[in-house]
Known about the structure:
Elements: H1 29-60, H2 63-90, H3 93-116, H4 122-146, H5 156-184, H6 187-195, H7 198-207, H8 222-234, H9 237-258, H10 260-267, H11 275-296, H12 302-321, H13 326-354, H14 357-388, H15 391-412
Amino acid sequence: MSAPPASALPASVPKRTKTHDPWEPLRHKSFAAFFCAASISNAASWMQLVAVSAVLFDLTHRSSWLGLQTVASLLPAVFLTPYAGVLADRVSRRLILIVTQSVQMSVAFTMWWAYRSHYLTPWRIIGLSFVSGITVGFQTSAWQSFVPLLVPDAQLTKAVKLNSMQYTLARAIGPAMAGWAVHTSGPGTAIFANAITYPMVIAVLIFANPRVVTKASRDQHILRALIDGALFMARQRSLRLALILGTLLALCGQSLQYMAPAVAVKILHKTSNDNAPLLIGLGIGAVVGSIVGTMYGDRVSRNARTLTSLVMYIIMAGTLALHPSFPVAIFVYGVGGAAHFTMAMVLNTLIHSGVPDHMRGRALSFYFLGILGGIPLGTQILGSLSDAFTVRTAMVIDVGVLAALFIWLAVSGKGKLLDAPVLVATDDREISHQTQ
């Protein structure tokens, strides 16, 4: 008997290694170096985010400007990410990252110089955020698809989890460092700290030793390659649901972190700089979620973890609508951080484990397209609602949308699709023959 075609085999999870040590990828020098460099650089990026958001709010005193900045920084990525996914499957992902990190370093140094020279106006912040957003569009798919190449294929899922963990650690540490830097030296220090971390990441990328994988064919037209990637994602019901959930939770959940300065001023009656403790709480919650998720996450279904994260987001937005005390607000931001990590682990591991290397860039590009589009849209909507009515009204509406999504998943049973196996194609030409 002939073997069944590869496209008919359920390959939702790579082969397991003999050890269940979640830290195993750190034994590989390239991954360990990248993990450390990325942790430091991402923490510094959060420092700049906190500082620049506070500067922008102080200059304008309007929540809608926070939404506009988020749109400017992420909207270019919405248009560029699909093409960038094709690029990441065809050319060196390392080269893409070196170029994008160099551009982001230039933007950070320019932001710092403009602040120090008193040339940093709201529109200049928006303009620099737009340039940074262009690099994010090219970088996101390459970054996420580059990380698995630093470890053996059997350790892919563990590497993905650790990559998410370093980001959550950065989210906890960065705002804390920003709060200290802004309080003692001003926002310029936080911006400068971010700028000087990029050379370290670039150096690690240059000397990294990723494993060699098969690249997607360059003979195929870019549009055709993009369509094939879209067809692959569309024909898998679990991946379709992952895209929908990623978009909606970015719009109604992750956008809440970008509203932190407005929450600090209009709900908690603090200064805009007090958004730092809120983001520290969010980061600590994400770290706690990452530890619990790494140790016990595999024992719970993806469907159950998804519903749990929705409940946590509802608690976060609902509590903020009640005008809580400052400590309570910090705590519920921590609940939101745990919700974010829980959901990110569900969707990231599902997509990474269900997509072959030669298509991973395109698959991730569609996933991040929803996230990078949902965050600025959600921030802009919440900011506009806050200016037109109150921040409390915006939070109540957010709770309503999240509750409706929870009810739909729980009653329809659609969430069980997240635990279904994914059919993996080994070549672009097999995509058109796959079925649900």
